[in-house]
Write a structure and sequence with these properties.
Shape: globular
Number of domains: 3
Mean pLDDT: 88
Largest sheet: 5 strands, mixed
Distance between the termini: 72 Å
Strand content: under 5%
Radius of gyration: 27 Å
Strand order of the largest sheet: 2-1-3-5-4
């Protein structure tokens, strides 16, 4: 471990100085203001004028608390200047880079002439492998030096991973009980890849997402099966690795303890829990996190292998769900931030940055031609969700009950600013009727965000601040139906790190306040932190299970019903709106629904079609169901509650 890394294992100290005495007064004041703001915002209900006033007061308290806390908090150690950080690795401008570029260009030419072939795929993979190998030349493997204190943090991280593994895999195929149609489409696309029926990866898949974006789910299906368990397993794996990633990035930018606190916040977060128990939307957050982590250590230590990995992950992030494209403006502004405040430091690494950019282009490979040939497919989703598009603007005027674009934008701003503490997810993909953060994380985030604002010139704070602001701006303010979590899951890493930094600084404050009490003080603080996180974690888990444990749409309830029947069971469907090939049926119970019948056909003698066992009628067919129950007695009615009927299932003779 480098000297700079060792500096990041501890919280900034509060020295006995006039500034420290002021800090010891202002830090608790900032905490108190944030707590009061969180209490007020959680007590508001609805959007009436009186409630809006309370929301404004809560927002002021949260912002003011963050500013006071950030202004008073001691800063983490800065990195060394480039003159103090020599490069021990060979530059990549040799034969390896030449062959990587040669193979990449060959892949583009062959793809342009003949489309995707095994030779194109081999040349593309070879170019990526070659540029990584070029960076490994001269690397000396040695046992890293890990300070004794950090072994405790690593043990804590291992414990968090065990907790996360249990909570992310418990009833993985039944929690959430509902299967949103978008996840069914993702599963169907991934199943085609896993089964080998879809051979092309340099093309668009469902919803104009590059086919490469379905490889995480397809890979999990190869390992865990082509059903719901395999689909959701991709989120579990990425969610666990994300905990490792936030620890590593937090350790690199701030301290090991800050990274551990960040991992703990995400472990108990119901938002991270929801994202890591399902597929697709967590993909860009995972790739973005590790792309930024490897870019960080690659630039700081001038290590080519890390920059090569960052370039590969950056390109893959672009190929994932639309939110992954945030990495383009994020890294562009992050490098500009370094150029403004650490210009000499960044210029000293121009070769490394050039190699990183080349790696991004090589990894994108033939997809660059796909993007160029059909640029409309790249931006079609953006146009559909852009708040200033005329059609969506008219829709949002109705949603917000306003009569002008200015009114819409003001409501968008309100929903965006309060998404972390008040407004729930507006989408059906996750469907949690909860704000983005729980109360504990909401307080910590306000304080951590204040620290980032007051230390925005520093690389760690500046980059994470950009990540949060850009993610909120593009993923919420500029898009309809805010807040929409599928676009905002990419905020989990920086939000978790903001919470981790705040928790670390609070720990440092109380550690200094307890004075020279040694091990007893550390043990006491650790127990208090454990109890707080345990209580918050149990509350968040119960909230998630309460919302997602039993509710499902009618399509999912029908599919779940058929899942419970013997493998030989088949059914006809009688519905005005549903079709037997709908994506939820096709993914959960493929081939189990054999056809649609009209009410007239269902009332007459049934023609044989696959020897069906059940006749399933949706809720609007209640009169027909009552009539047919005289012919087929004993048919159960299914719904989300005793007072709701989603469908009728009649057993045929």
């Amino acid at each position: 471990m480098s000297q700079t890394a060792e500096l990041r294992t501890e919280t900034p100290s509060l020295a006995l100085s006039s500034r420290a005495r002021l800090t010891r007064f202002l830090l608790p004041l900032g905490m108190l203001l944030a707590v009061l703001g969180e209490i007020v915002i959680r007590k508001t209900r609805g959007d009436s004028p009186s409630e809006a006033w309370m929301q404004a007061v809560a927002g002021v308290l949260l912002i003011l608390g963050g500013f006071v806390f950030g202004a008073a908090a001691p800063a983490y150690a800065s990195w060394s200047d480039p003159s103090e950080n020599t490069n021990s690795l060979p530059r990549p401008w040799h034969i390896g880079l030449f062959w990587a570029c040669f193979l990449a260009v060959a892949a583009l030419i062959l793809f342009d002439q003949d489309g995707e072939t095994p030779l194109v795929l081999a040349a593309w993979l070879g170019s990526i492998l070659m540029i990584v190998v070029a960076q490994l030349r001269g690397v000396r493997l040695h046992r890293p030096h890990i300070p004794r204190a950090e072994w405790l943090y690593l043990a804590g991280l291992a414990l968090l991973l065990i907790v996360a593994l249990v909570t992310r895999t418990y009833r993985l195929t039944a929690l959430p009980y509902n299967l949103d149609g978008d996840f069914a489409s993702v599963g169907l696309q991934a199943r085609e890849l896993a089964a080998g029926r879809q051979h092309q990866i340099f093309t668009y898949g469902w919803a104009n997402i590059p086919m490469i974006g379905y490889l995480p789910a397809a890979s999990a299906m190869l390992l865990f099966g082509a059903g719901l368990a395999g689909l959701n397993a991709s989120g579990v794996v990425e969610g666990l690795l994300m905990l490792v990633g936030v620890y590593l990035l937090g350790r690199e930018l701030f301290s090991a303890r800050a990274g551990l606190f960040a991992a703990a916040v995400l472990t108990i977060s119901y938002t991270h829990l929801a994202a890591s128990r399902q597929a697709m939307y967590i993909d860009p957050a995972f790739f973005m996190l590790f792309a930024i982590y490897f870019l960080t250590i690659g630039l700081q230590r001038d290590q080519g292998w890390a920059l090569a990995l960052s370039g590969i992950l950056t390109a893959l992030c672009i190929d994932m769900y639309y939110a992954g494209r945030l990495i383009i403006p994020l890294l562009g502004l992050a490098l500009l931030h370094n150029l403004l405040f650490r210009g000499a430091w960044l210029v000293a690494r121009w070769r490394s940055l050039a190699m990183w950019a080349v790696t991004v282009l090589i990894t994108l490979g033939p997809m660059l031609l796909v993007f160029a040939e059909n640029p409309g497919a790249v931006g079609v989703h953006t146009e559909e969700v852009f708040i200033l598009s005329p059609e969506l603007m008219r829709h949002m005027e109705g949603v917000y009950r306003v009569t002008s674009p200015v009114g819409v934008l003001l409501q968008q701003l309100r929903h965006t600013l309060l998404m972390f503490h008040y407004y729930p997810d507006k989408g059906t993909q996750f469907g949690l009727t909860l704000p983005y953060l729980d109360p504990l994380a909401g307080i910590l985030f306000a304080l951590g965000f204040g620290y980032f604002l007051m230390n925005w010139r520093r690389m760690g704070s500046g980059w994470l601040l950009l990540w949060i602001v850009l993610g909120v701006f593009f993923g919420s303010f500029l898009t309809g139906n805010a807040p929409f979590w599928p676009r905002l899951i990419v905020l989990l890493p920086p939000v978790g790190l903001a919470c981790g930094v705040a928790a670390d600084l609070i720990y440092g404050y109380f550690r200094a306040a307890l004075g020279p009490r040694g091990r007893d003080a550390v043990v006491s603080l650790a127990l208090v932190a454990l109890i707080i996180f345990l209580v918050a974690g149990i509350s968040n888990w119960n909230a998630y299970v309460r919302v997602k444990g039993s509710y499902a749409t009618a399509r999912t309830l029908i599919a779940r019903f058929m899942e419970k029947q013997p493998e030989t069971a088949r059914a006809y469907l009688v519905s005005n709106d549903f079709h037997y090939t709908d994506r939820e049926f096709d993914f959960l119970v493929p081939g189990r629904l054999v056809g649609n019948l009209t009410p007239e056909q269902a009332a007459s003698t049934l023609a044989p079609a696959g020897q069906p066992t059940f006749l399933i009628l949706t809720a609007e067919q209640a009169d027909l169901a009552a009539q047919l129950q005289q012919r087929y007695p004993g048919g159960p009615a299914e719904g989300n509650s005793p007072n709701e009927v989603a469908f009728y299932a009649l057993r045929l003779p």
